[in-house]
Task: structure prediction
Amino acid sequence: MRIGIAAVFAAAVLGLSACSSGGPNPVPIPAPSNTSLIPGALKPFYEQQLMWTDCGGALCAKVSVPLDYSHPAKASTQLNVVKVNAQGERLGSLFVNPGGPGGSGFDYAKSAAQTFSGSLTNNFDFIGVDPRGVATSSPIHCLTDAQVDQMASAVIDSQSARGIARAAREAKLPASNCKKFANPQFAFMSTENVAKDYDIVRAAVGDEHFNYLGKSYGTSIGVKYAELFPQRIGRMVLDGVLPTSESLENVTQAQAIGFEEAFADFAADCAIQDNCPYSGTGMQVAQKLRDLFFSLDMAPVKYSDSRSLTGAFVRSAVLSYLYFPEMDYPKLRDALDQLVNSNDPEALVKLSDERNGRQADGHYRYNSFDSYFAVTCLDRQFKKSTEQVDALARQFEKSAPTFGKSLAWGLLPCSGWPAIGPGSTKVQVASTVAPILIVGRSQDPATPVAWAKNLQKEIPNSGLITWESRGHTAYRQGSACIDTAVDTYLLQGTLPTANAHCSRS
Result:
């Protein structure tokens, strides 16, 4: 059977929604009672003075951090940082990250007026940091635009030894190119290093405590920071938990199942709409779409001089539009209808390009593919062989027939990664840490709510609030209950009652 490697990096999408100016009255955040001594070799980084410049409604600066924290004086790298000043009485800074790996914290913070509540933008300076090697922070470049296109459309013939051997060769491309073109920087992009970078930025902007809201992969940054610097945390929100303690194999299998459930939900919703590409029940629509993916893998359709519409590409495009049902489903349904009933792939290709940051000239705006692999393969060491990945693909397919195989094959580039990172480790946060708010969504395809529940048990003094709904992450996604709980916590330091829930409506 021919299958494709779906896009395995998460899309960092900013949900734009209206702001409100009301909110709870802010309560000052107490400074840390003690601050651990800064190693002498790191003092120049912690004591650097930033040169802020106007960058269109915000202030921007470059922050230097050690490339290798084991040898901080040997080499450094620069981070691109943005600050959007509080509109009212300043309570402090709020660092934000939208996810990834590969998402731009810089862009996320710069859009704060559209993305966050007015009560937060009134009282916090919003700080956005593009993590090391990502987007505009000395970005690594491993793959050419053409190679990214190639990987996004790659089809694997898993039924033949020749097809599997070809998959193994192509999967080595990110690793070999990162080692060739982004060495040594690619070897120091672990989330642990990113968390250490955030503490330097915290000091550089003049904050005694670290206030943070991270979504999806951004929660991993927050957890690592809490492990390393528990005494410096002010208020922290972790929305859509991506666990740091799970293996790459386990994370991928859970996501395959989550997206399979979201796909079934999309198909059921599509079946009752006028512009669904196929008629029938939800199960019938889902199967017809799977048949479409398979037929395009067998006989790709030429889209342009350099791109072909394969089942792998379409499967990936569909997966990337299962994150936010209210926004994604109508766009995806219309694009699939045009592909199936008008033989016009343009709308679907545009959707995929929009979410992946591919511009009209064929250039990818940011280095999301490169940074996804560099971070993921360091954080979650993966040692399985091609034959073992093939077995995993067959296993994943049983519970996730639409995406299981493609997501399993997406693990292969991390096998034999030419740099050693810390790997996945058990969460260990000091019992003295300030209260942390964890947020989950009951049917989140990318970050299953079980991960949020587990993290709440692992972090002392943490609180959990869950929204009974489908979609990825919860804050500012349509629940006034969630938004009020998050804003109240960030402004007053008050956690919701134990195991609080927000209803679907």
User: Anything to note?
Assistant: The two ends are 42 Å apart (CA to CA). The mean pLDDT is 92. The chain is about 40% helix and 15% strand. Residues 248-271 form the longest helix (24 residues).
